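The following record pairs a protein chain with its ligand, nicotinamide-adenine-dinucleotide.
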Amino acid sequence: MSNSKVSFLESVNSFFDKAAPHTGLPAGLLEQIRVCNAVYRIKFPVKMGNEVKVIEAYRVQHSHHRTPTKGGIRFDMGVNQDEVMALATLMSYKCAIVDVPFGGAKGGIKVDPKKLSTSQLERVTRRYTTELIRRNFIGPAIDVPAPDYGSGPKQMAWIYDTYRAFHPEDLNAAGVVTGKPVTQQGIRGRTEATGRGVFYGIREACESTKDMKELGLTPGIAGKRVVVQGLGNVGSFSATISQEEGDALIVGVVEYEGAIYKKDGIDVKKLLKVRKETGSILNYPDVDTKLEQKDRNKGLEFDCDILIPAALENQITVDNAKNIKAKIIAEAANGPITAAAEVILDKKGILIIPDVYLNAGGVTVSYFEWLKNLSHMRFGRMNKRFNQRQFDLILGQVEGLTGKNVNARDRKVIARGADEIDLVRSGLEETMINSYIEIRELKKRKKKIDNMRTAAFVTALQKISSDYLAMGIFP
Ligand code: NAD
């Protein structure tokens, strides 16, 4: 197998193998952490028009060191066992890194969701859920799916409804799946969560004057030139939030139909509108460079400070790694850089913010949603008004002492109790900042750890191993 053809799973496991020696853990324990605990492969029939199609699907539970296991379901024609195993593996490490108390899992259904009608998609999703229920592969305490590439809130609502029909006695049934619509027991801020987490992670990385100096950059995300690949859920929120809240300059976008570059910056919201109305980013006006579909991947080589691959795995390989101009690669997608490509990028001195940390915002807010479902109450419901009144009283005291009145607009901002969305964003921000600092400090402390990915994997292995050691099986 040539280097550019190394499978996604082999790539993930080679990252593991690189990190393992830094942990000092016994071989048997490392092997237990590395392997996928359970792989379920299903083929089931679904009626499509006058025909019956046999659908191939998977659910992989990588690690049961904590339960439930957790991970999205991918709807894509490229789905295969190796890919789902790789994604499930990443989920275990991801959850450990951001201190979300789940084992890793992932699902995959081999369909092209764009080619199915809504009712066909619903039949596929409900049947898949039924197959998981049949094998006890799903449940609020067993395994909790979420959206991934090609799926979203709609599918999650069908999964919840199917599970509830089979388990009407389960008081916690809403906790069977996350990423549900807010009206169907979802949580505010889940849809944007992965992209928002990507923004918090990049912003934190750019905060370090020392790290930025090593890259020849100034500190801070503001003004950094960014190229994004993939304007789906993760890419579009990463780009819009980086632009609106971080003042980053989005200079390039790479999508399925082609790529565009504009050195003065692209208005991402306007671009999303153009794409929705015309079906292509190539219709965005006044760009400096336009690449047709066949050349789109050249867009990854656009001149920029930060490259955000937010589409699929294996996008940066030994074939194009040497041409990448970005100083920072922020892995919003899972596995966009192969292990062999990373060696080249490391030599070029590029800072890679690894997927296993950077796109953990989705599972973090999924955890909040699951907690909300188990508590049967919206965050903020008990204390919002109380806090609002307390802040109002304090303001009144300050006004009395200073003799100055706070204007109505400022009062609204200061004397305000937190809503669910405020708490979700605050919890996500706290998680992404703390986890970045933890990984960075480990890397700085242990000189032999070569990059942020290895540091992230070491962090994950240490946390997972402590659960296994507490079980008393390993010496
Ligand atoms: P999505 O389906 O919403 O969007 C993917 C986008 O990538 C689409 O717009 C698609 O047209 C585009 N795309 C596909 N192939 C491309 C190519 N060759 N070049 C350029 N663009 C291409 O998917 P998503 O949920 O945003 O997931 C994207 C990545 O993020 C995946 O790797 C997924 O595993 C990962 N991820 C997603 C979540 C989540 O919460 N959705 C969480 C963690 C990680």
